[in-house]
Structure formats: structure tokens, C-alpha cells
Design a protein that fits this description.
Immunoglobulin-like, 2 domains, 154 residues, four-stranded antiparallel beta sheet, 14% helix, 7 strands, 34% strand
Length: 154
């Protein structure tokens, strides 16, 4: 639910609505449907992605602040690009009382189906300043070849 709708609902007299209420309502409804949908927990680490293209290549960018290079894995199988990783939590210090903790930790996985003209042999990846950048070259378009098929008489 976007913030604008949430704020409008809060402004209705006698109507209080929170994310916790919405999640509870969703989970109750989802249970009746056999748990076919997943509503991510607000404590899950869900990096934001951008996918763009130009004439020569595709670009995939992900915000991965606080994630080390060794904690990210990129693979390609059956034309599916998979990016997964983990943002590890920092050790809590026993002598501190946390009043606010808004940082999110955990593992993530995103899958992208590559277009037919993506060059699977020419993918470059870089992690710099918390941004993962992938460049996927495009193959030049190959015109389909016409072929005459001979029909045998049976």
C-alpha cells in the first residue's frame, strides 16, 4: 500500500489502519487461498534494482549497501540470470540499548530472464560503492534463414 493511500485512510474519522493490520488481513486472506502469495516481511532485506538498455547492451543495477563482494553470487542458467546475496548483521554490543534499529539484514535472490539477443558470453559485473552493475552485451540481430523443406511422397 503506498503512503498516499495509507495517509488518506488514517485521516478518515474513527479509522485506524497500520502496516501490521494490513499484513494480518493479507495473511488471513492468503491462508484461505492456500498460501499462494508471499508478502515480504518488513524486516527482510530487499535491494532495489534497475534494468535498462541501449543499442549495444543491457544494464542491471542493484543497491547493495554494506554487502561484501564475497557475499554476492551471480549465475546464469537456461537464460535466467540469478543474483543472490546476503547482508550480514553487525554484532550487537551487549552494553548498548538500541532505541531505533531501521537497518535491514538477510539474504535475497532475484531472477531475470534474458532477452534472446543477450550475449551470454559477454556479461561483466562490478561492485563499487554499494552498487552492483552488470553490463550484458547484445548480439547483433541475425535474420532468420529461409529453408525449403522437401515433401516426400508416402
Amino acid at each position: 500500500m503506498n503512503m498516499l493511500v495509507k495517509n488518506r485512510l488514517h485521516n478518515l474519522p474513527g479509522f485506524e489502519f497500520s502496516n501490521k493490520d494490513f499484513n494480518s488481513l493479507f495473511n488471513d486472506f492468503n491462508g484461505m487461498l492456500g498460501n499462494k502469495f508471499h508478502l515480504s516481511n518488513s524486516n527482510d532485506f530487499n535491494p532495489k534494482f534497475e534494468v535498462a538498455e541501449n543499442k549495444k547492451y543491457y544494464e542491471v543495477h542493484a543497491e547493495l549497501p554494506g554487502i561484501e563482494l564475497n557475499d554476492v553470487n551471480i549465475s546464469l542458467e537456461n537464460n535466467i540470470l540469478t543474483i543472490k546475496g546476503e547482508k550480514k548483521s553487525v554484532k550487537e554490543e551487549k552494553d548498548k540499548n538500541y532505541h531505533i534499529c531501521e537497518r535491514k539484514y538477510g539474504s535475497f535472490e532475484r531472477k531475470f530472464e534474458l532477452p534472446e539477443n543477450a550475449d551470454e558470453e559477454n556479461i561483466k559485473a562490478e561492485l563499487k560503492d554499494g552498487i552492483l552493475s552488470l553490463t550484458i552485451a547484445k548480439n547483433e540481430k541475425v535474420e532468420p534463414k529461409a529453408k525449403q523443406i522437401t515433401i516426400n511422397q508416402g
